[in-house]
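Holo prediction. Input below; ligand is 6-O-phosphono-beta-D-fructofuranose.
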Amino acid sequence: MKKIAVFTSGGDAPGMNACIRAVVRTGIYHGLEVYGINRGYEGMIEGDIKRMHSYSVSNIVQRGGTILKSARSMEFMTPEGRKKAFDHLQSHGIEGLVAIGGDGTFTGAKVFFEEFGIPTVGCPGTIDNDIFGTDYTIGFDTAVNTALDAIDKIRDTAAAHDRVFFIEVMGRDAGFIAVESGIGGGAEFVLVPETKTDINQIVKSLKNLRKSKSSSIIVVAEGDELGSAETIMKLVKEQIQDPTKDFKVTTLGHIQRGGKPTARDRVLASRCGMAAVEGLIAGKTNCMAGVMNLQVVYTPFEDCIGKPKTLIPDHLKLINLLSI
Ligand code: F6P
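Structure of the complex:
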């Protein structure tokens, strides 16, 4: 293997740049030519591919976003789109790929490998942490700390006005950000897609809590099965029927996707990037380099996509127990 390419795809995540840097420099260290593909699969289809050097990734380890930009490509879902992408890779002589992204990215990479046989190793880049085969994904720790900072600030004003705040965090299909920011932020309730949300129970508990607490924080993952924080707030408000109580909603949104990556994310990203390139050199393909129990592990894309990553049961218990 002489030439490899790296790209970022799907939702960007803080730490993707640290991962790109690790891929480029590990490749160069091992004597490879490294290319960067702009805008993920979209750029692959358009041939937006450039040579990267050690200096191409200088001064990016601390930056959020991704210098290679990202996209969600519809065209790559078609056989014609994938053929165009393959032709561009061939014209550059690229023999291996490092795909940094989440489950959509790995689904595309798996199909592409099966059709065209270009060896591909993934790195888990998504703030959602919903990828099987790694304890944490790149960007998750930063997103949790961003959410936590917001929750701390909202807590100040919630307490000052005796208000109940519903704070919506990201997590389309998974409640990891909600759970960890909720524990760290001392939330009274955390509502996630993985567990059934019981409005009656929340109303009952809120009424009981009111005797000892005047303000409450309820963290809602955007993918909760009952709907958005706004919808859930309205359902609770209707049932509580207390005109003296003030309910507020804050949606944190894309603020969670930006910002300087934390040390944890930079280290994880660097480890995964190095492992992806060394995995390719060692002949690995169709798998993701992640970190479990502090060790680098390679997990087939099939499992990363197909196996559910479950919330830590102790975490859910903690939230209930500590909110009394
Ligand atoms: O997959 C990461 C994620 O941040 C989800 O939590 C969120 O629902 C989604 O991306 C938002 O995507 P977009 O930026 O395309 O609206």
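The pocket of 6-O-phosphono-beta-D-fructofuranose is lined by residues 11, 102, 126-128, 170-172, 222, 257 (CB under 6 Å). That is the main takeaway for now.
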